[in-house]
Amino acid sequence: MKLNIPDRQRWLVIVAGACVALLILEYWVRAPLFGLWQAHSLDIAKLQKNVTVGRSTISRAAQIERRWLDMQSNALPKDPAQAEQDVISAFDRWGRANNIELSSIRPQWKRGSTDKYSLLECRVDATGTIPTLSHFIYELEHSPLALRVDAVELTSRDDNGQKLTLGLIVSGLRLSPLERKLQ
Fold it and tell me: Into how many domains does the chain fold?
């Protein structure tokens, strides 16, 4: 049995069928493939960035290893009392060399984020002039000890700003965990 559909209606059926087929292709084929393509493009860009960073790290491997060995050799001693003494002696030496007055050095041990290290955090208060205090900080930062300046606070002690008080928070690295106190 053959349907007798006039030409105009036949063309309308063909066009309607083509539109339905295009809609099906749009929602079930093209849109998911386009989303997948965009996700893959983002992944490729991320991986290319990771490769670039990795190559940069590999090219600096010798420098990083030298720096790590330097940090290990200059870390604070494993004995906490000796570590405190070394840091306090260094502050005293730098203070005398720069003619500044150290009013207090308060060391406090802190646990590291892992059990592989601990930190000696020191609050240092000193008084002096801008040149003497800046040279003191310079010597501290260029010290062979594994010290890091975490915070700096400067306040004026006179109206002219000639005499300043320096407040520092300095952390020293010790490559052993902090011992638990026995109770």
Answer: 2
